[in-house]
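Supplementary material to the annual report.
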Amino acid sequence: MATAIEIRDLTVEFRTGPEVCASLNFRAGGKVVTALQKLNLNVAQGEVYGFIGPNGAGKTTTMHVLLGFIEAVSGTAAIYGEDVCRSIARRRIGYMPENPQMYSFLTGHELLIMAGQLFGMRGCRLAAKADELIELFGLSDAADRKIAGYSRGMMQRIALAQALINDPDLIILDEPTSGFDPIGRIEIRKIIAGLRSAGKTVFFSSHELSEVERVCDRVGIIAKGRLIADGHISQLVKAGETLEQYFVRILT
Amino acid sequence: MIRILVIARTVWIETIRRKDLYVLITLLLAFLLALMTLNVFGLRNLVSYIKEAGLLLAWVFAWILTIGVSVRQLPQEEKTGTIFSLLAKPVKRSELIIGKWLGAWGIAGASTIIFYILLAGIVRARGGNFNLALTVEAWILHFCFMGILSAMGILFSTRMNSDAAATLTGVLSAVAFMLLPQVPQLAEDLSGWRKESLFIIYYALPHFELFDLRQRLVHDWETMSWEPFIMIVFYGLLMSAVFLMLGWLAYRKKRFNRDVF
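Predicted assembly:
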């Protein structure tokens, strides 16, 4: 099976010193904190991989490295064999950030068209895909309204819709259900299940462990920048144990 | 190229949907209408005064608009978090920089066309006229000036917040515009390293005065011959490219990480 994500000995560091000059975004002094320590991770094509861990463990940082937002101090990360530092690696990715913010001055429909154009899509194909996603996410009534007037749930929906505009092979979702009500969560689960049956790879982080347990093929648990567990849920948990109980056990 | 244009178009849509541009146009119109009713002590050459004041306003408003639009692009993307969705697409940092610059430059340039048309209307209403060929030349050079200014704004905003970038762009451009032409004269009285440093500043900062054809327009002089005109346009594009290159160097390795530490 092809490898969608391949991370080898990835180390990321941040300087945590006080901001000397806020307007220059300049930090000095302080200490260097290692956010990721020699992280190794593989996600195969077609898998739904849950990436879980406590706050500040390095989940978002790992995603940000995969998306090229930050560069690692050492180690490598590749998506479908392409180094993540190259923009070409992002051609087959769809990404929804945690607490997503979209251009508030655009309408939902305009946002999807813009996102598609950035992937090189155009014409009838793009318009049809945008309409399909608007329909899928129940945004038909709000499609021509400015995003500034969207509720949090609607913002999550349009953010997820723009992540799927290019029909990506790998979908990276950072806390995808955090802004949704229970019905919205069920819809997200259905969408992830649909993506899995379409052969897509889903890499997502969540604090909702019951959610992870329901939709994931495999999970990775990260703590203090290290991957401390990785495998199929059935292989990790003991008989009668839930993922949540396993998570608490392994972290304490 | 398509990604650059998509980013630039987003800047245009944002600026058009914000109210800043309309405020500037309304202010300019108000000032011009005030000029139209002007008849100080029965001055004979009033049209020249209207032209001069109107062009000054057009330059000042274009300066404000260009700096305002260009410096807020990148910091705003980072502050609101929209940068994450944008850079998750196959967009290179260089494409982002050029797209933002093109957007800021384009919208500022388009708004100056409105400024010039409004001014031409007022001047015509007072019985005066603008030489069309010279006006086109003046606008093209003004447009090149805005290209450099927006590239400077983008450069400083790669590593500063929008307020700091606006201040630095504003101060540097004002110094370059008003003081730089005086440097050779000042340097005559100096010697040694002082003279050399002054000349380094003289050659490093853009010569905005080259792009200013207001006096020609006010006094209805002849158009510029095409050789110096082309050279100035080329100089403008070159300076813009230099600032954009520096902006890209400052931005290409910039880390974006939210809510981690």
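The CA atoms of residues 72 and 180 of chain A lie 32 Å apart.
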